[in-house]
Design a protein that fits this description.
Blueprint: H1 2-17, E1 30-37, E2 46-53, E3 59-65, E4 69-80, E5 83-88, E6 92-94, E7 99-102, E8 107-114, H2 116-121, E9 123-130, E10 135-143
Parallel strand pairs: 1-10
Antiparallel strand pairs: 1-2, 2-7, 2-8, 3-6, 3-9, 4-5, 4-8, 9-10
Bound molecules: copper (II) ion.
Copper (II) ion binds next to strand 8.
Length: about 170
């Protein structure tokens, strides 16, 4: 009886600070905003980006696979001695209920030898492997060389433009 009322009180507190559904239905682990910047040279890998939304429990992303690439590596970019370098990482922690963005200048995937059919279709199906056994499938849009990156969901463009510039 005591334990039950304590749980109820905790739920009531959560419900008042979050959404009413918080206790019944925690948001699941999912992936979105996936895209690939196609390398101009088919012999060099293309970079891919996406956002992972943490679920009710912490997990780790253990890798990304696709039937439409020869292989995919997870990398992390960092500044070292004034130069950008990158190194492979074998897992990325996804804390519960938090968002982890793979974005230009930071974490990313590198896709080696993307299948030409995927390039023609303009998208590549990816499978994200998590430490809890979840396999999440999500298509990444393929941006050809020279095409702009898709607009980020948050505002804050770094390209405010200068006064003399013509509108693009
Ligand atoms: Cu890389």
């Amino acid at each position: 009886m005591g334990a039950f009322s304590r749980i109820s009180a905790a739920c009531a507190l959560l419900a008042s600070t979050l959404l009413l559904a918080a206790c019944a239905d925690p948001p699941p682990l999912y992936v979105d905003q996936a895209w690939v910047r196609l390398s101009a040279n088919p012999d060099s890998p293309s970079a891919g980006y996406f956002v992972v939304h943490g679920g009710p429990a912490p997990v780790a992303l253990r890798g990304v696979m696709s039937d439409y690439a020869q292989r995919i590596e997870m990398h992390e970019s960092m500044a070292m001695g004034g130069m950008m370098t990158m190194k492979p990482v074998d897992k990325v922690d996804i804390p519960a209920s938090q968002t982890v963005a793979f974005a230009p200048g930071g974490k990313h995937i590198m896709l080696f030898r993307i299948n030409q059919n995927a390039v023609t279709q303009g998208k590549i199906p990816l499978t994200f492997l998590f430490s809890n056994g979840d396999r999440i499938q999500f298509d990444a849009m393929i941006q050809k060389t020279g095409e702009p990156a898709p607009a980020a969901k948050e505002g804050g463009s770094g390209h405010a433009g200068n006064a003399s510039g013509a509108a693009h």
